[in-house]
Amino acid sequence: MKTMKSKLAVALMAAGLSFGAAAADITVGYAADPVSLDPHEQLSGGTLQMSHMVFDPLVRFTQTMDFEPRLAESWERVDNETMRFTLRKGVKFHSGNAFTADDVVWTFSRLKSSPDFKGIFGPLVSLTKVDDYTVEVKTDGTYPLIENVATYIFPMDSKFYSGKTAAGEDKAALVKHGNSYASTNVSGTGPFTIKSREQGVKVEFERFGNYWDTASKGNVDNLTLVPIKEDATRVAALLSGDVDMIAPVAPNDYKRIKKAKSVDLYTMPGTRIITFQMNQNSNEALKDVRVRQAIVYAVNNEGITKKIMKGAATAAAQQSPVGYAGYNEDLKPRYDLKKAKALMKEAGYADGFTLSMMAPNNRL
Question: 169, 135 in Cβ contact below 8 A?
Answer without folding.
Answer: no
